[in-house]
Amino acid sequence: MFKNMIVYRIAPQWQVELTQVEEALAKAPFQECGATQEKSLGWVPPRGELHGPLVESVGGQWILRFMVETKVLPGSVLARKVKEKAERIEKETGRKPGKKESKELKDEAKLDLLPMAFTKQGSMWIWIDTASRLLVLDTSSQGRADEVVTLLVESLPGLSVSLLDTQTSPQAAMAHWLKEQEPPVGFTVDRECELKSANEEKAVVRYARHPLDIEEVQAHIDAGKLPTKLALTWDDRVSFMLTEGLQIKKVSFLDTVFEGTKVDDGGFDTDVAIATGELVKLIPDLIDALGGETESGVASAAQAVASDRAEAAVPSRPPMPAAAPSAPARKVAGGGVVTGPREVPVDTDPESAPF
């Protein structure tokens, strides 16, 4: 649960009850693809119980699960079917199908093949923390995250969210931490990173299971290569990979997290309590390490959260380049608003997404 994370901030004016969320999700339950349906999506019970609730509250944390099913139709099989239909027409009429007719043949062939196609399912965990006003999606694909967030905004009246946007860009911060060998307070730099050149050559250097406190890494940064990924550990409790797009990947809970728990303590409630209990503390610390949030758009919700937390004293750091300003908010169907950084984070690893 929550191996990859894309984090959004929820606007402070959104106030709903758990029952309202349940009613909204019940309007779009997941159903398997029909015979000629290419794709189906919707909500499923997080616990996996038949006819169970579509949103679960564990310790005040709301957990949802989004399911997608697609028909697997290889392009080569479709092309062969279209070719067969075209050859039949040419044989019967003595003419080759035109461009418009060829498109119609492709659609016809697809309808013929879809009932026999295999299906592939994938799911995504969604976590809503109403206290900290966070929306967290368990995916590394920004495109898939956008699809789910749009559906949520359309389904839940008044919901407005923005991608987490920090004063200091993750790339600038990671470069500083590596070059100065000065990780942020509460974090340690691990033994994996990726550096990429910004010029036309796009040269890439990757380190895996390798010390990063070496002159070679600093030389790469001096030469213009900037970090796109960096492995970090927070508080000796959670390890993860931070990306230039502020995605959190490869989340792993260390042994210290499970101290005091029994082997048979597993289960949905325990998994949720452990994961959210650690991550709800990690995310604010990571935001602080990146200079705090920008004050534009929906991200102002952070101020409401921060006012309830005591400000921790941290050593001063040299100034680092700030992230680009946020783009204007955009409205979607249902009256919600989605805002975010001017440039959407790059979809760096779509194949590792759950669907």
The helix fraction, in percent, is 25-40%
The radius of gyration computed from the alpha-carbon positions, rounded to a whole number of angstroms, is 24 Å
End-to-end Cα distance: 15 Å
Number of helical stretches of at least 4 residues: 8
- Shape descriptor reads globular
Would you summarize the structure shown here?
This protein has helices at 18-25, 75-93, 99-113, 142-155, 170-180, 215-222, 268-289, 301-306; strands at 6-10, 39-43, 55-58, 61-72, 118-129, 134-137, 160-163, 187-197, 204-208, 225-234, 238-243, 248-253, 330-331, 337-339.
Describe the structure.
The structure is a single chain. With 355 residues, the protein is of the alpha+beta class. 29% of the residues lie in helices and 25% in strands. The strands form two sheets. Strands 1, 2, 3, 4, 5, 6, 7, 13 and 14 form a nine-stranded mixed sheet that branches. The C terminus is likely disordered.
